[in-house]
Amino acid sequence: MLFHGGRHAVTRVRVVERFGEPPAIALVECWLETGRTHQIRVHMAHIGHGLVGDPTYGGRRKPAAKALGETAARAVIDFPHQALHAATLGFTHPVTGEELQFTSDLPEDFAELLACLRQ
User: Fold this and answer.
1) In 58-105, which residue ranges form alpha helices assigned H by DSSP?
2) pLDDT truncated to tens, each residue of the chain (119 aa)?
3) Potential cystine with 19: which of 39, 42, 101, 117 (Cβ 3.0-4.6 Å)?
């Protein structure tokens, strides 16, 4: 995506799981080809899908209790931070040229939110 006056940034997005009937929220995977500040947050907001818990780019849209159920909708509204997790980070070391990769498990509160959405 290229924003007027912005720097070139590319984010690839794949829907992993949809929640609600009709779908009201989704779990997505993002692959960054560039590494710009707030890149995922800005790109997702730009296509109308702000992140859960993002006070800056998330928008003011509330999840539909009819679609998700009251408990799941409340869990989304009450989620205390951005629902954004870097499961894998990789880069080429600038000095050695070595390819480095790091992984991290999903935080407990994020896993609990997903469990609630799956019910």
Assistant:
1) 65-68, 70-78
2) 445 667 788 999 999 999 999 999 999 999 998 888 899 999 999 898 999 999 999 877 788 889 999 999 999 999 999 999 999 999 999 999 999 999 999 999 999 999 999 99
3) 117
**Dihedral of alpha carbons 77, 50, 109, 66, sign:** positive
Full domain range(s) for residue 19: 11-118
Please name the helix (run of DSSP H) or strand (run of DSSP E) that holds residue 87, with its range, or none.
Answer: none
- Amino acid making up residue 39: Q
- For residue 1, being part of any structural domain is answered with no
d(CA 66, CA 81): 24
Q: What is the CATH number of the domain that holds 79?
A: 3.30.2350.10
Total count of domains within the chain: 1
Which pair of tokens denotes residue 1?
């995506």
Domain membership flag for residue 24:
yes
At a CB cut-off of 8 Å and minimum separation 6, what does 103 contact?
87, 88
